[in-house]
Structure formats: C-alpha cells, structure tokens
Amino acid sequence: MAAPMPDMTGEGTTLQKLVAEVLRRINDADRDGASRLVDQWAAVHGYGDAIAEILEPVLRTVGDRWEREAISLAQGFVAGKVAEDILNKALAAAPKGVFGEVKGPVVIGNIEDDYHSLGRGMVGTFLRAAGWAVIDMGNDVSPAEFVDRAVETGARVIGVSAMMFVTARGIRGVRDELDRRGLSGRIMLAVGGAVFKVRPELVAEVGGDGTAGSAMDAPVLFKSLWERSLDAGGEQ
Ligand code: B12
C-alpha cells in the first residue's frame, strides 16, 4: 500500500523535514512515494526549485551515506531512480532545459570493457536537465568511437565514465586518439566514476581535462570545459 502523504503545507513544516521524509522513503525503497512528495512541492514551487532545494540535498546525503557504506546498493539505486523521475519531469516541464537554452552537444559513455552504467546514466540525466544535448553512447565504447562521434556531431566535450581501475586506464586511449588527430584542446576530455574519487591522480594519468565527483557537479564541469574549448579557438 502507498505511504500516506504527510501535510507539507502546515505551519512549522520545513524543507529539512521534507528532505528527511524523502530520504526515509528512499530507505524504504518507496520510489513512487518519494517522487510524489517532490511532485507535490514542485506543483507549488516549480521543478527548478525542487531540484535545488530537495533533490540536491537528498542526493548529497545519499552520496555521503554511500561513501560511508551506510546504505545498500538497492537504496542507492532507488535514489538514482527518484532523481531520474524528477529530472525527467523537470525536462518535460521545460524542454529547453530547466536552467536555460539548449547547449552542446556533448558525448558521454563508458570506456571499453566497462559496463557500470548507473553513474553515467545519472550524469546524462543531470546534463540534460541543465540544458545540454547529450549523446549517450552506452557501455563498452572504444576511444576511436568516442572521438568519431564527437567529430561527427561537433561536440566539444567527451565525458568518459569508468568504475574499475583496469578500465579507467583505457581512457588514456581517448587522449591518445585526440592527440593523434590534433583535436586536444578543441575537444575536451571529462572523466569520472568512483575509481577517480579513490585515486584522484588517475585523472592526470589518463589525460583527463577535468572530473567531477557526482552527477550533480557534472553540468558545471562540462560548462567550464566547453568554454575552455572555445577559448582554445578553432572550428570543431
Ligand atoms: C553496481 C556495481 C556493479 C553492477 C553494475 C550495474 C550497472 N548497470 O551499472 C554489475 C553487477 C554489472 C557490476 C559488475 C562488475 N563489477 Co562492479 N560494482 C558495482 C558497485 C557495487 C556500485 C557501482 C555504482 O553503480 N555506483 C553508484 C553510481 C551512481 O556511482 P558512480 O558510478 O561512482 O557514479 C557517480 C560519480 O562517480 C560520477 N560519475 C560517474 N561517471 C562519470 C563520468 C563523468 C565524465 C563525470 C564527470 C562524473 C561521473 O557521477 C555519478 C553519479 O553521481 C561497485 C562498488 C562501489 N562501491 O563502487 C562495484 C565495483 C565498481 N565493481 C567491481 C568489479 C570488480 C566488477 C566486476 C569485474 C565483477 C565480476 N567479477 O564480474 C564486474 C565487471 C563488469 C564490467 N566489465 O564493467 C569493483 C571494481 C574494482 C576496481 N576498483 O577496479 C567494485 C569497486 C567492487 C569492489 N569493491 O570490488 N558491478
């Protein structure tokens, strides 16, 4: 049976209580109940504010708990799905992007032999909600495929995800391919995934131009890399 809806409009109700209730439902694996709470609040305040005021604190808490191994993968998965639900509704409500005009395109994917799609999926969702046109190439993408697609579409940023040490090292191939075709600087390389959080030195080792520790921080990274590409000049 669905959890009853608490009255979130009454006196004394704070955003913190709402955030806590959304977290409680995520812990109970109640995806629909958590999404409904956010929807109810967004109906009054809009999805842009719902993302900033509710979703972001919820996901930061989930991220902290995940790093402390205080939640299960299933609970993390539900949190990711709630984020996807909210961001997709935000996108439907504001097709040009919640935060402005459509930007990009950018290319994302998991490097060759890497099938950890959850994190990459969240990065794509957050980028789309921030107004980026995202070409998601999926799992197991070779360096040449990444660069070919960026060239075909005029993308100035390639975002490569890897969860394992052994696969992350394969990202070096994307840098080598960009160098070989004289595209480094014009096409920027964003890298990410849990392995980069535990071994930050890997970013430089694989030739990454930048990284972000969470999907929420990806739009800021992609914007700065896009601007660096424009500063470097040249047609793409
Ligand atoms: C779920 C999971 C799986 C699932 C993946 C399901 C899916 N569809 O994604 C399955 C079961 C398929 C799987 C398989 C394997 N896995 Co696994 N897996 C995990 C686990 C438990 C969680 C990963 C996850 O989804 N995290 C949640 C997401 C949301 O977080 P995230 O990926 O970090 O992404 C966030 C940020 O990093 C960032 N981000 C991510 N990508 C990008 C990209 C850019 C450009 C930017 C800017 C940011 C960014 O934004 C995201 C959202 O905030 C981890 C353990 C762990 N604690 O991390 C092991 C783990 C990654 N797996 C591991 C291993 C070894 C394997 C297998 C080899 C197991 C086996 N023996 O078969 C296979 C390999 C499959 C393959 N070739 O890819 C090891 C890797 C060891 C290492 N460091 O080298 C880990 C660390 C487990 C362990 N402790 O041993 N796995």
Report what the structure shows.
This protein has about 240 residues and is of the alpha/beta class. The protein has 2 domains: about 15-95, Methyltransferase, Methionine Synthase (B12-binding Domains), Chain A, domain 1 (Orthogonal Bundle), CATH 1.10.1240; about 105-230, 3-Layer(aba) Sandwich (Rossmann fold). The chain contains 11 helices and 5 strands; from the N terminus they run H-H-H-H-E-H-E-H-E-H-H-E-H-H-E-H. A 5-stranded parallel beta sheet has the order 2-1-3-4-5, sandwiched between helices. Strand 1 (about 105-110), helix 5 and strand 2 form a beta-alpha-beta unit. The chain is globular, with a radius of gyration of 19 Å. The protein starts with 14 loop residues before the first helix and ends with a helix. The model is unreliable at about 1-5 and about 10 (pLDDT under 50). Bound molecules: cobalamin. Cobalamin binds near residues 164 and 218. Keywords: Cobalt, Metal-binding. Pfam families: B12-binding (PF02310), B12-binding_2 (PF02607).
Separate helix tally: 11
- The rounded distance between the terminal residues' Cα atoms is 54 Å
Please, what is the CATH homologous superfamily of the largest domain? Answer: Cobalamin-binding domain
Structural class: alpha/beta
Mean pLDDT rating? 89
| Ligand set | cobalamin
Count of individual domains: 2
Percent of residues in helices: 55-70%
Strand content: 5-15%
CATH architecture of the largest domain: 3-Layer(aba) Sandwich
Order of helix and strand elements from N to C terminus? HHHHEHEHEHHEHHEH
**How many beta strands in the DSSP annotation?**
5
InterPro entries: Cbl-bd_cap, Cobalamin-bd, Cobalamin-bd_sf, Met_Synthase/Corrinoid, Meth_synthase_dom
GO molecular function: cobalamin binding; metal ion binding; methionine synthase activity
Domain B12-binding: 103-236
Protein name: Corrinoid-binding domain protein
